[in-house]
Amino acid sequence: MAIGTQDASDEVMSEINMIPFIDVMLVLLIIFIITVPVIQHAVNIDLPQASVEKVQDKPENIRFSVDAEGQYFWNDQRLSDGELDGMLSAAAAQEPQPELHIRGDKAVRYERVALAMAAAQKAGLRKIGFITEPTP
After folding, report:
1. Nearest C-alpha neighbor of 125 from the set 74, 80, 79
2. pLDDT score for 1
3. Of 3, 19, 34, 86, which residue is least crowded by CB atoms under 10 Å?
4. Which has the closest alpha carbon to 91: 60, 114, 130?
5. Is the pLDDT of residue 7 over 50?
6. How confident is the model at residue 134 (pLDDT cuts 50, 70, 90)?
């Protein structure tokens, strides 16, 4: 024997079971009730301003340039390939280390810039940056 009425077995159930939706909404409500007081317990403080003296002087940045012919320049002074390793090693030995700013001409072969970067890394310089012109 089947439980239920005879005429209800062939009809499609057209009601939506709302109980799972109500359960999800109650869980979300509880989560929001718990988290809102935590968010609003911030203390507004007007912090004082104080000047701090420099403890350590920052060394001057090194302007390293590579012109269109592939010639190296150290702070606008011409540098031969043989002098490059010595200058980079001396800069790496400074404490704190200066930053090496590389300015490469857009017409220079990438190989010349890559060789200089490899020499700087081999010498132990950790701060290397590229200088470009902003687009108009």
Report:
1. 74
2. 45
3. 3
4. 60
5. yes
6. confident
Q: Reduced to 3 states, what is the DSSP secondary structure of residue 46?
A: coil
Q: Is the Cα dihedral 130, 105, 95, 50 positive or negative?
A: negative
- Closest by CA to 67, choosing from 76, 58, 55, is 76
* Best CA proximity match to 88, nearest among 115, 110, 109: 115
* Pairing outcome for strands 72-74 and 77-79: antiparallel
pLDDT single digits (tens) 61-75: 888 888 888 899 998
Give Cα separations from 29 to 20, 33, 118 (angstroms).
Answer: 14, 6, 59
- Six-digit token string for 42: 């911030």
CA dist 83 → 19, 68, 86, 105 (Å): 80, 19, 5, 21
